[in-house]
UniProtKB/TrEMBL annotation, chain B:
Single GO MF descriptor: ATP binding
Principal location class: membrane
Localization in the cell: Cell membrane
Domain ABC transporter, first and last residues per copy: 5-239
Family, similarity comment: Belongs to the ABC transporter superfamily.
Protein name from the UniProt record: Energy-coupling factor ABC transporter ATP-binding protein
Superkingdom in the source lineage: Bacteria
Membrane topology, as annotated: Peripheral membrane protein
Keywords, in A-Z order: ATP-binding, Cell membrane, Membrane, Nucleotide-binding, Translocase, Transport
Gene source species: Companilactobacillus huachuanensis
InterPro entries in alphabetical order: AAA+_ATPase, ABC_transporter-like_ATP-bd, ABC_transporter-like_CS, ABC_transpr_CbiO/EcfA_su, ECF_ABC_transporter_ATP-bd, EcfA_1, P-loop_NTPase
CDD domains the record matches: ABC_cobalt_CbiO_domain1 (cd03225)
A matching Pfam family: ABC_tran
UniProt KW Transport keyword: yes
């Protein structure tokens, strides 16, 4: 995935709820693909979506980086362990065959599809839009007394405080380094131990931030989340309808290509 | 002058504390005045703010805000009349962007969205932060964050603004901008300002200073009168303002008029010394 990248294009302007749900939907239908034609079609769709976003392709490749070893491992596993009646090469427990090659290729494309489409969501949608979407999607749960608005506010405050806590951590690390703590040396146990002097001050300061924030929120009239109005509103436009119809068409074509 | 806050015989002790934080304190605050409450750490000044806003409950005594004695029932109404700017700009920023944060207080009041959009814009223009509307707090300087906090408070149209050490974490430029802005808003919006600080230099713009020590008022007067206390201020853990310290040292060698001189007045006196005009 990636961090939000400010920009403007059709993909940015789509309603985040639609983007959020359809991304999950797409990840689901990726598993329906079963032959070269269906994979090629989905790949074409993702490349089209990336193109529409007007975001530099490099950002998507960056999204692959953290899962690079996972992909390599899975692909290698498929290549070497797919059982086959007529292997091209056979040695001990390892089998290399045409079938293995094809399956490994499919798995590789599946990874690319899922990572690119979710990177597209996170690059074009701010965390706050995602938290708004979750609130909106979970709204029906209000009927069973689930505190949807409070949870959404918690989520947005949590997101808001991530960078602040990162700063706080850096500050604490510097302060501990100045006192002679070395974070990069020693065995695993020693390294883990050296994080204790970071975690404890971090906990203490998070609590004090939470206390200050609670006082500030109360002084600004926050009661319990009831009777509040909303400043940010999500608007579902015609283009969002078009996106849903488009996605339905993609599903239709995919189902057709499957049995092709 | 019309009273806006009237505190009578207030007492407060923190749970499990041996000494009381506020002792028999009575204080009247007038409409549209800028009152500074100064005192060293632990003198009870922040406790007093929290009591005024009903964030903690007094052991005894009464607090009247805009003609109404605050109690558990009307506290939320009283809070709409009071806005507080806290010390750490990062710890009071609720929204993910500048505009979201300014809207927070309005959302709490359940204001319809169209009005909210207007009120947010107006408030941001007042503090000259309209260009930063969509920015996230992390990209702002301390002074800018405090200006956003002021906008958030102003949007709800309070009558009283309390600044609880709000400029103590800012650099000198940020501090100056924020204090001047508050001064300007005070006359523009007919606000009453209560600023709480341990730094006596920050009280220059106020009209009245109350010195707090051990939960009691030890001095109450115009800035000149308080600055004139000179070395007596040190008894209460406060430093004498630099200019007044300088004036008293200079008095040993050169003749200066009696009473407190601010920086400008002192300059005025000094440049005359070597002039033959």
């Amino acid at each position: 995935m990636g961090r939000y990248l400010p920009g403007d294009s059709l993909v940015y302007r789509l309603d985040p709820r639609g983007k959020f749900l359809l991304t999950f939907y797409f990840v689901g239908i990726v598993f329906l693909a079963n032959n070269v034609a269906s994979y090629a079609f989905l790949l074409a769709f993702v490349i089209f979506a990336v193109f529409l976003s007007k975001i530099n392709f490099g950002f998507f490749l960056k999204g692959l980086k953290p899962v690079f070893w996972l992909i390599l491992f899975t692909v290698a596993l498929q290549l070497l362990f797919t059982p086959s009646a007529n292997p091209l090469w056979h040695w001990g427990i390892f089998t290399f065959s045409k079938e293995g090659l094809v399956i490994a290729g499919y798995i590789f494309i599946r990874f690319i599809l899922i990572i690119f489409i979710s990177t597209l969501l996170t690059l074009t949608t701010t965390p706050i839009e995602i938290s708004d979407s979750i609130e909106s999607i979970l709204k029906p749960l209000k009927k069973i007394k689930f505190p949807v608005t409070q949870v959404a506010l918690m989520l947005s405050i949590a997101l808001r405080f991530v960078p602040l806590l990162v700063d706080e951590t850096t500050k604490i690390m510097d302060a501990q380094r100045a006192r002679g703590v070395d974070f990069g040396e020693g065995g695993l146990i020693k390294r883990i131990k050296s994080f204790v002097p970071i975690l404890i001050p971090l906990f203490v300061s998070s609590f004090s931030i939470a206390y200050d924030l609670a006082i500030a929120m109360e002084s600004r009239g926050y009661k319990d989340g009831e009777g509040r109005s909303k400043y940010r509103v999500l608007s579902w436009d015609r283009r969002d309808n078009i996106m849903v119809i488009f996605m339905a068409a993609v599903t239709g074509i995919l189902l057709f290509l499957r049995s092709y | 002058m019309e009273k806006i806050i009237s505190i009578k015989d207030l007492n407060y002790t923190y749970p499990e504390a041996k000494r009381s934080a506020i002792k028999n304190l009575s204080l009247d605050i007038y409409k549209n005045e800028w009152l500074s409450i100064v005192g060293k750490n632990g003198s009870g000044k922040s406790t007093l703010t929290k009591l005024i806003d009903g964030l903690i409950e007094a052991d005894s005594g009464t607090i009247e805000v805009a003609g109404q004695i605050i109690n558990e029932e009307n506290i939320w109404e009283a809070r709409t009349k009071i806005g507080i700017i806290f010390q750490n700009p990062d710890h009071q920023f609720v929204g993910a962007t500048v505009e979201d944060d300014v809207a927070f207080g309005l959302e709490n009041q359940g204001m319809p969205r169209e009005e909210m959009v207007k009120a947010v814009d107006e408030a941001l223009i007042l503090v000259k932060m309209a260009d930063f509307k969509e920015r996230d707090p992390q990209s702002l300087s301390g002074g800018q964050k405090q200006r956003v906090a002021i906008a958030g408070v102003l949007a709800t149209k309070p009558q009283i603004v309390i600044m609880d050490e709000s400029t103590s974490m800012l650099d000198p430029d940020g501090r100056k901008t924020v204090l001047n802005l508050v001064q300007q808003l005070r006359s523009q919006q007919d606000l009453t300002i209560i600023s709480i600080t341990h730094d006596i230099e920050e009280t220059e713009l106020s009209q009245r200073i109350v010195v707090l020590n051990d939960g009691q008022i030890v001095s109450d007067g115009k800035p000149e009168e308080i600055y004139d206390l000179g070395a007596d201020l040190q008894k209460f853990g406060l430093e004498e303002p630099f200019t007044s310290e300088l004036v008293s040292t200079l008095r040993d060698t050169i003749k200066l008029p009696d009473g407190y001189l601010n920086e400008e007045e002192l300059k005025e006196q000094l440049w005359k010394l070597h002039s033959n005009m």
